[in-house]
Automatic annotation (TrEMBL):
Molecular functions per Gene Ontology: peroxiredoxin activity
The name this protein goes by in its record: Alkylhydroperoxidase/carboxymuconolactone decarboxylase family protein YurZ
Keyword Oxidoreductase carried by entry: yes
Domain of life: Bacteria
UniProt-listed InterPro entries: 4CMD/NDH-1_regulator (IPR052512), AhpD-like (IPR029032), CMD-like (IPR003779)
Residues annotated as domain Carboxymuconolactone decarboxylase-like: 30-90, 158-231
Any matching Pfam family: CMD
Gene3D superfamilies named in the record: AhpD-like (1.20.1290.10)
Amino acid sequence: MNKVFIIGLLTTILLFPQYMFAQNNSTDRMALQPKDQSIIAISALTAKGDLVNLKPALNKGLESGLTINEIKEAIVHLYAYCGFPRSIRGLQTFMEVVDERKEKGLIDETGPDISPINNEASKYDRGKQILAELTKMPQDGKPAGYAAFAPVIEVFLKEHLFADIFERDILTYAQRELVTVSVISVIGGAEPMLRSHLNICLNVGLSPQQLKEFVDIIRSTLGDKEGHDARTVLNEVLKAKNLD
């Protein structure tokens, strides 16, 4: 047998596992992890107030590897976008799920608590810094639009939403953005906000393919209309960035 052929064959055999490992890693980066898929479904159903379907989604989330504290944090986070009533009902439903699972002998991981925030800067400055990091844009310009019309909401936005909430750990920025775009997709009529946060999703490392998968989950969880509306805005975002 030709020596060159034999050497080539041996090289292929030796390198094939490495090639497959690289391919699998690439695929993993393109697809949303099961935990993140569950975060989307849990957030969407909580925001919609669909507590019947929320229960199996919460069970699936725990089974996907989400800790109790991660799910609690996602449900707490979403109150900023759809209000206390939806968030609190989501938490109450989650309490029922955890208790029911304990009765069945299923003990779920609680996970780490929120880390203390040791930052002496004002909450406004901290929120401004986080917003700049998320949007990849400086936040030192003169207030315009709604921020100029009602300056207090701009203060609330930076001090509370981006300091009090986004500064907390347990969830990554990418996971918090998945919560956010899920809720905005539910409430409807907020396309400029959805557009803005889909752009932030790209900024914090989510890929176009992962965002397309997000839309598929919204469609399967909520319905064709919500999925279509989310896909329309996503297409606009990706086209503007030449990522479609």
